[in-house]
Design goal:
The protein is mainly alpha-helical. It has 41 helices and 14 strands. Among the domains are: about 150 residues, 3-Layer(aba) Sandwich (Rossmann fold); about 90 residues; about 70 residues, Winged helix-like DNA-binding domain superfamily/Winged helix DNA-binding domain (Arc Repressor Mutant, subunit A, Orthogonal Bundle); about 210 residues, Tetratricopeptide repeat domain (Serine Threonine Protein Phosphatase 5, Tetratricopeptide repeat, Alpha Horseshoe); about 70 residues. Helix 13 runs parallel beside helix 14. Keywords: DNA-binding, Transcription, Transcription regulation.
Length: about 950
């Protein structure tokens, strides 16, 4: 038996959630369970349950709840799980449970062990991580009153202490990345917890992300000032000064083999399908590696079965579990393309973007090579047809692919030997079990006739049963007979089923659930049909509603309680069957002008939010050649506070924007969405995604200047992939279009990028000519930062041609212009050029200083690739100066940075650390 108080009060026996009764009964149970094995006086129980004003009949009510709790314990015992007893003792009651039954006790035991200084640091970190993993939400989440509030406050303090201890232990092990990943969410829950902020800053510093650490300090200082009127404490201030002074940071942890774990959470209240589960178990045992297809109608539980079984089988696949929703039947009509799905799997295995091939066949070959010799489980959910799936099959005997689809994928059975599993509706008994799991066995047993009617009204469809069960669970005062009566009166609309009776019943369930919504929730549900992505956050929902985020959160919560939305972390997902229903409702309820306005608000929010975030990625960017559409009324775009927040926003939303680019019909919107995405995709090395978005932008361009911008960015993306012919064609087209549009600045940028292309081809003299043309055009346009960057390019090409003294002179002039323009990122590039030229002139001290400045500037912008590149060059400069230890330190630091972005340059830099003597300097010019 598992008694859960961390979160809502629950009792789990034999894998089933038992009915814990009304909130008052849960309060009585919790009041006893927080002190298992200890007598709790009746007066204390009354005080904990009712507070200072108990009703006159409190004791009689208490005795009734005690009787029900005893029946609950008896039910667990009959299931063979637990020997709990509730006995009268010393004018009170004692709840005797097996040790470790209550999650609060397990949490306390794990944290006590995790704080034991005699244990190895790795053990302490693991124990505290296990404790934190027990936390499902605020303790006694649904209970009210002073006592429950006090329990929550005390255990929140213990959780915070455990989180601080865990982060400290992980940092001691050199696992800065683990702290960076977990701490921000904890800080959102404990925004005034300075120890957590300090540990996150230490982790960022240890990982070389000092600019982000500085942003964290500024944010916590503002929060403390707003909330308390106080400054950060001495530890945070001292850490801030340490980072400002550039004092050494702890080395990041060594890289480990990436083991993806992408399965969605296991299914709560899973019931039935025993025959199919045993069938899959036998297949894994007897025919390992044979693909499986699971087919059945919409909402029948294909995903639930596959996810539940995948969790059972995960231990057989120690090298990872991959998951993708192929969106084969998404009402938006944009299934996931096979090459996109493979790209996601390659990302999961940390394949560097530069190593990802362009074509589907090459990507599949790389993916299957990665899987060779590994045991990996692939769950390919919601496939449209065999053609979508066939490239994703692993092709190696140690791996298993499980595919779900509404269609019977006979092609996979024939050509790939897949084992077919077809799901029918669950039996009436299984449907009753599913409902009982969700609403509580006791409640279901009390109204068997109503349960039978609900099962019939839901046509035994698991999705419909889950919706009704959620309504029953959140309204315990409503009888099941009352729910059945409501369903009897309901009507709905959906055209997803061929069986008229099934269609009618599912329509009724959806319509019934929809009718329970308040006006705001009903309106938002219909508007969700306009959202293009697989998930959405609160701000995007606010844009759909033209309302502040604070007003939309409770509306989203209402939709979640109604099981019309599912929460996934801080975002929300919508079953495609429900999306189809929302689309139908919107079409029949909302007039076309209103639906158009909803769509414009959402896309306007994405465009303007992306522009704001992009400005933080490159403060010196030019404005787009065409102004974005005006911001629709009532829309509040995101305004990220700093670079980390901008990167986080893009990380959450870029996949939605890509989907919108694929499906948006408004040409202007396509162009602006792609323009807003381009820099982020470049920062992340997602060149293939960039090419897809920019190609759509090019197709939608209405003016020569827009086409030129798309061609220019496409040229850069192809250049990064070393597809030089395509890069050259797009840059030539960009120059023609910019000239046609009279866009002098666009012409200048294109010449600078063309110089880069020629450099890659080793044609330095021609590259110098294009850089000189770029300077002349930037000067004519009055573009100061562009002129500075083009001057640096001239200096660099002089260095490539061996004229190091001229390179230094030109780069110093570039620095002067960049300082005047405030272009610190451009200065980083120029300091790197100066370091290169100075080293070739034998001025090693000057070169070392220049490279150090370049590294510091790149670090400000979280530009990891260029920071790594300049750090490697700094190592070269130290080596040339005869300082072998400093050279090795720099090379190691560069290798670690390359490792962080999964760049193949790491191996080459590591190899330099073994060079015993300075390089031959005969090429240097004094």
């Amino acid at each position: 038996m598992d008694v859960r108080l961390l979160g809502e009060v629950q009792v789990i026996a034999a894998g089933r959630a038992l009915d814990t009764g009304t909130p008052r009964q849960q309060a009585v149970f919790a009041a006893l369970a927080v002190d298992p094995g200890k007598p709790v006086p009746i007066e204390t129980l009354v005080d904990r349950v009712w507070g200072d004003a108990p009703p006159a009949e409190a004791r009689n009510v208490l005795y009734s709840h005690i009787s029900r709790i005893r029946r609950l314990l008896g039910q667990a015992a009959r299931l063979g799980d637990g020997t709990g007893r509730l006995d009268r003792r010393y004018a009170g009651y004692v709840l005797d449970l097996d040790p470790g039954t209550v999650d609060l006790d397990r949490f306390a035991g794990l944290t006590d062990q995790g704080r034991d200084p005699s244990r190895p640091p790795a053990d302490r970190a693991a124990l505290l991580a296990r404790a934190l993993g027990l936390w499902r939400g605020p303790p006694l989440a649904a209970l009210t009153g002073d006592w429950a509030d006090g329990v929550r406050e005390a255990w929140h303090r213990r959780r915070l202490d455990a989180a601080v201890g865990w982060a400290r232990a992980e940092l001691g092990l050199g696992h800065a990345d683990a702290v960076i990943a977990a701490a921000p969410q904890l800080i959102t829950e404990y925004p005034l917890a300075e120890p957590l902020e300090a540990l996150l800053m230490e982790a960022l510093h240890a990982a070389g992300r000092d600019a982000e650490a500085m942003d964290r300090y500024a944010a916590v200082r503002a929060r403390l000032a707003d909330a308390l009127g106080a400054d950060p404490g001495p530890r945070l201030r001292a850490l801030h000064q340490t980072i400002l002074r550039g004092e050494p940071r702890a080395a990041p942890a060594a890289r480990v083999v990436t083991v993806p774990a992408q399965l969605p959470p296991d299914v709560y209240g899973f019931a039935g399908r025993g025959t199919h589960l045993r069938e899959l178990d036998a297949l894994l045992r007897d025919s390992p590696g044979r693909p499986v297809t699971i087919d059945g109608m919409a909402g029948i539980g294909k995903t639930a079965l596959s996810v539940h079984w995948a969790h059972r089988a995960a231990r057989h696949f120690p090298d990872g579990q991959l998951y993708v929703n192929l969106r084969g039947f998404d009402p938006a009509g944009v299934p996931v393309a096979p090459d996109e799905a493979v790209r996601g799997f390659l990302d999961a295995f940390a394949v560097p973007p530069g190593r990802v091939p362009a074509g589907l066949e090459a990507r599949v070959g790389l993916f299957r090579s990665l899987l060779a010799g590994r045991r990996v489980l692939l769950l390919l959910d919601n496939a449209r047809d065999a053609d979508q799936v066939r490239p994703l099959l692993p092709g190696t005997p140690g791996c298993l692919a499980v595919v779900t689809s509404r269609n019977r994928l006979a092609g996979l059975v024939t050509t790939a030997g897949a084992y077919p599993v077809s799901l029918d509706l669950p039996s009436a008994a299984e449907a009753r079990e599913l409902l009982a799991q969700r609403i509580g066995a006791g409640r279901a047993a009390g109204e068997p006739a109503a349960v039978d009617e609900i099962v019939a009204r839901c046509a035994r469809l698991p999705l419909a049963l889950a919706i009704v069960a959620t309504r029953a669970a959140v309204t315990p005062g409503l009888t099941l007979a009352g729910l059945a009566g409501e369903l009897r009166q309901a009507r709905g609309g959906l055209a997803e089923f061929t069986d008229p009776d099934l269609e009618s019943n599912v329509r009724a369930v959806f319509s019934w659930s929809y009718r329970q919504l308040g006006p705001a929730a009903a309106t938002l549900f219909r508007r969700l049909a306009a959202h293009p992505g697989p998930d959405l956050g609160v701000p995007a929902a606010a844009a759909l509603s033209a309302a502040p985020a604070g007003e939309v959160r409770p509306v989203l919560d209402e939709l979640t309680r109604a099981h019309l939305l599912e929460r996934a972390g801080v975002r929300y997902t919508l079953h495609d069957l429900l999306r189809a229903y929302a689309t139908e409702l919107a079409g029949t309820t909302d007039p076309e002008p209103e639906r158009t306005a909803v769509r414009e608000r959402l896309l306007g929010w994405y465009v303007h939010s992306a522009y704001a975030a992009d400005l933080l990625l490159n403060p010196m960017r030019d404005d787009p050649v065409t102004a974005p559409p005006p911001l629709p009324a009532g829309v509040r775009p995101e305004r990220p506070a700093g670079l980390p927040e901008a990167l986080a926003w893009f990380g959450a939303e870029y996949h939605v924007m890509l989907t919108a680019v694929r499906g948006a019909g408004d040409d202007a919107t396509v162009w602006h969405l792609a323009w807003g995405l381009t820099r982020y995709l470049a920062y992340q090395g997602r060149w293939h995604d960039s090419i897809e978005a920019l190609t759509a932008a090019l197709d939608s361009a209405a003016r020569p200047a827009e086409a030129a911008s798309a061609h220019r960015s496409l040229g850069c993306s192809y250049l990064r992939l070393h597809r030089l012919d395509e890069a050259g064609r797009h840059l030539a087209a960009a120059l023609r279009m910019s000239t046609l549009a009279g866009d002098v600045t666009g012409q200048a940028h294109t010449h600078r990028y063309h110089a880069w292309l020629l450099e890659v081809q080793g044609r330095y003299r021609e590259a110098l000519g294009h850089a000189e043309r770029a300077v002349a055009l930037f000067t004519a346009a009055g573009h100061l930062s562009g002129r500075g960057r083009a001057l640096n390019a001239i200096g660099w090409f002089h260095a490539m041609l061996g004229d190091y003294a001229e390179a230094v002179a030109v780069c110093r002039e570039a620095l002067r212009l960049q300082d005047e323009a405030g272009d610190r990122l451009g200065q980083a590039e120029t300091w790197d050029s100066l370091g290169y030229a100075a080293q070739r002139l034998g001025r090693h001290t000057e070169a070392i200083g220049a490279y150090r400045t370049a590294v510091a500037r790149y670090r400000e912008f979280d530009d990891l690739y260029n920071e790594a590149d300049s750090t490697a060059a700094l190592g070269d400069a130290h080596h040339a100066a005869g300082d072998a230890p400093a050279a090795r330190d720099a090379w190691r630091a560069a290798a670690e940075l390359f490792d962080r972005i999964h760049h193949p340059g790491a191996a080459a830099v590591r190899a330099r650390a073994d060079i015993p003597a300075p390089p031959d300097e005969e090429e240097h010019h004094g």
